[in-house]
Structures are given as C-alpha cells and as structure tokens.
Design a protein that fits this description.
heterodimer, A: about 5% strand, B: alpha+beta, Arc Repressor Mutant, subunit A, three-stranded antiparallel beta sheet, 5 helices, elongated
C-alpha cells in the first residue's frame, strides 16, 4: 500500500475514534437541534465510510490472488505497483465488513418492524382528537408513539400529577418529538452504531439531545424555562415514587449526563447559544471523512483500470 | 404544524390541553371552568371555539349546564382494552433489550442523585399546589 492510500483509508477510522471521544461532550455543548442533526449525519457518513474502506481493503487483497486476477482480467503485477494489501489484513477486513453489514441489516429490519408496529398501534388507537390519547392508568407515564400520523400517549396518573401549566409543558414536549420526527434521528444513529459499534456513544448522545431538543421547544412554547424544569422534576418524581414500579424501559437514558437532573439544570440556565465554531469543526470532520472515502474509491478504480489495460496489452 | 395560533399556542396544542383537562376532571366542565383550569392568558372565546371544534369532531359530548354547556370526553377512557394501558404498551414496545426504542419518553429512569436534585428544584419552585406536601 502506498503511504497516501494508507492515510486515505485510515482517515475514516481516525474520524471514528475522534467522534467516539468527543460525541457526548459535543452533543451537550451544541444547541440540541444542531447536535441531533450534525451527530446523525456524522454517524451515518462515518459508518458508511468505514464500511466502504473495509470492503475495499478486502477486495484489494482478493484481487491480488492470481485466480481472482485471471477472472477479472487484470495484471497482478500492475496492482502490486501501487503496493499490495497484505492477505491477512484483507481477510480480517472482509470478515469485519460481513459481520458489520449483517448487524446493520438486522438493525434496519428491527427499526422497520418497530415503526410498523407503532403505525399499527396508531391506527388501532383511532383518530384521537389533536393526536392525544389519554389512557386510564394510575402509573404516571407519557410518551410519543412515532409515525407519519403519530400519537401522544399520556396516562391519567401523569395528568393528575401535574398542574395545568405543567401539563402544557408535557404535551408540548411530546408533540415536539412527533413534529420534528425525532424518532428518525434515533433510528438512523442506531443503524450507524450497528454498522460501526465504535460509534455507539453517538447514538446515546443523539438520544439525550433529542430529549433536550423537545425540552427547548416546550420552553419556547410556554415562554418560561423554569416552568419546564419544574414540570420535568414533578413528572420525574411522580414516576419514581409511584406505588407500582414499572421496570425502567430499555429506552431510558442512563447516566447523569443524560439524566433528568441534567435536563432540568440546562433549563435553569440560559437558552443554548449557536456555537458556530464547534459546529463548523464537526462539519469539517464529516467532509474530510466523506472525501477520504470518495478518494479511496477514485484511486482504487484508477488502479484497476490501469491493471486491466496492462493485462489486455500483455495478451 | 398548524399555523393558526391562539395566545402562543398552535390550535392542535390547545385541543390537547383541553382534552387532558377534561380527561382528569372527573366530571363535565363548562368553558368557564376549562378556562379557569388552563389560565395562561387565554380568552374565553378561544376556549369556547376549541370546545365547539372538539365537539364537532366527535371527541367531546356536551350537556346543558345552566345557560352554558358542560363538556366531557365522548368515549370514556375505561373503554380502552386493558392491553392498552400505558405501561403494558411500553413493555410491549420495549420488549427487546436494545437501547433504542420507538418510544421517546418524557421521563427517563431516575438516578438517586437526580431524584434529590429534582426534589430540591421543586422545593425552590412553587411551594404549594397540592402535588407537594
């Protein structure tokens, strides 16, 4: 492998490591809407780039084997001119890309199933005036059921726990999840994390930022950040002290970084600032990663064209 | 997103607030009572319009109460099958132990530190509105 090619193919992995390290803190510092969008794009581009580079590495190693070269009509000598891909690296890359692709496909299937189930549930719940479904259940609970025509589900236990102005916060928060299609970002970053498990912290960061985003929309709607913090606190405590304890859902965000107290704390401060430099740095990283994958494709194609030309002329 | 706004609320948002109030009121409410419950700079006519619209959609039923109408939910909540209780539905949707879920929940699982911080926040917030001792 030429040093330039090695560098190019290494870039998506370097970006993966950087994103893994800075994903969560960047997600907290950027305004939530920006964080969700940028981190989702960063996760998808990086996952695609790493998968692609692994596939190219496997292909290059295979292409240097004489039987494969004969099949593809290219000159192995010409391929070696640009440096060879060690067979062991190629085999490992091939194994990795197959396992990761399978994981991504499983994840995509699961997302499709989940969303289809949610859509079916929405239909079953009927039209529901204003998209709200109130369920008779003493356990305080509230969530958004996603879909093109999603529903906000609230239990009577939750409604009774909150005064009217805080109920308004709760409803605005859940509606924001649906209006801004937050579930798409969550599913897409889960897909990226399946395709590149090192990006897992980005999926968690997006889930946390999505909640913050909905909190901020609710704050804008009611025009009182403290009121949103109070609603969060009361709803959280009502659920924590409810007589019937439902085990925490798998979707619950764990760790103090994502926790309810962190969300309430953020609301007690000022509204988030744009942070253009940080957003710009993240965009730059994404562009570099995408460019590295594109150049790898270009370079590889060029090498094979050259090798095929030599093969034909040597006949 | 609906564009018609009433005192900072999208039309759909006010409908949801009205429905939520009626769902937990335990008895039919008049427009005046709904207004008193919601507060927040709403006009009486706005509440009246919302109630009429919800009634026209079939979401509310109304009965005469003095010179006005008292409104309640058209379909009682109990009519929902037991499988649709919020927690059962959540368990169904969260069945797989993956982290992502189709649900985005308002309330996440509370850590102990969170609980203490939130209680403090409420202590500083508003002292008496029934929900807190």
């Amino acid at each position: 492998m030429s040093p330039a090619m090695t560098l190019l193919m290494g870039l998506p992995f370097a970006a993966t490591v950087v994103l893994r390290l800075v994903g969560a803190p960047v997600g907290r510092r950027l305004p939530p809407a920006t964080a969700v969008r940028l981190l989702t794009v960063a996760a998808l581009v990086t996952a695609l780039a790493t998968g692609f580079v692994l596939a190219v590495a496997a292909f290059l190693a295979a292409a240097a084997l004489p039987p494969v070269a004969a099949l593809g009509h290219w000159s192995t000598a010409a391929l070696r001119g640009g440096g060879t891909m060690p067979t062991t690296v190629g085999v490992l890359a091939g194994l990795a890309v197959s396992v990761l692709l399978a994981a991504a496909l499983r994840r995509a299937a699961r997302s499709g199933r989940d969303l289809a189930y949610a859509a079916w549930m929405c239909r079953r719940l009927g039209p529901g005036a204003g998209g709200l479904v109130v369920i008779e259940d003493e356990h305080p609970d509230a969530y958004a059921l996603p879909g093109l025509d999603g529903r906000v589900i609230v239990s009577t236990g939750m409604l009774r726990a909150l005064p009217a102005d805080e109920r308004r916060v709760l409803l605005a928060h859940e509606q924001a999840h649906l209006s801004h299609r937050h579930y798409l970002y969550v599913h897409l970053t889960e897909l990226a994390a399946a395709a590149n498990p090192l990006l897992r912290p980005l999926a968690s960061a997006v889930q946390a930022a999505v909640e913050r985003w909905a909190d901020e929309i609710a704050a804008t709607e009611v025009g009182d950040r403290r009121l949103v913090a109070r609603a969060l606190a009361r709803a959280g405590l009502a659920q924590a002290t409810a007589p019937v304890q439902v085990p925490p859902p798998a979707s619950a965000l764990r760790g103090t970084d994502h926790g309810m107290a962190a969300r309430a704390h953020a609301l007690l401060g000022d509204a988030p600032r744009p942070r253009r430099a940080l957003a710009g740095a993240l965009v730059t990283l994404v562009v570099i990663t995408a460019a590295a994958a594109a150049l790898t494709a270009h370079d590889t194609e060029h090498r094979f064209e050259h090798a095929q030309a030599l093969y034909t002329s040597s006949r | 997103m609906r564009l018609s706004r009433t005192s900072g609320r999208a039309a759909g948002a006010l409908e949801r607030e009205v429905l939520a109030s009626l769902a937990v009121a335990g008895r039919p409410l008049t427009a005046g009572e709904v207004l008193a419950e919601l507060g927040g700079g709403l006009a009486y006519t706005t509440v009246m319009t919302t109630l009429s619209r919800l009634h026209a959609k079939g979401a509310l039923r109304r009965e005469p109460a003095g010179r006005a109408y008292a409104y309640s939910l058209a379909s009682p909540l109990e009519a929902l099958p037991a499988s649709l209780t919020a927690s059962r539905m959540r368990r169904l949707l969260d069945a797989e132990d993956d982290r992502a879920s189709v649900l985005a929940s308002f309330v996440a699982h509370l850590e102990q530190d969170d609980e203490r911080l939130l209680a403090e926040l409420l202590g500083r917030g508003r002292p008496a509105d029934g929900a807190q001792p």
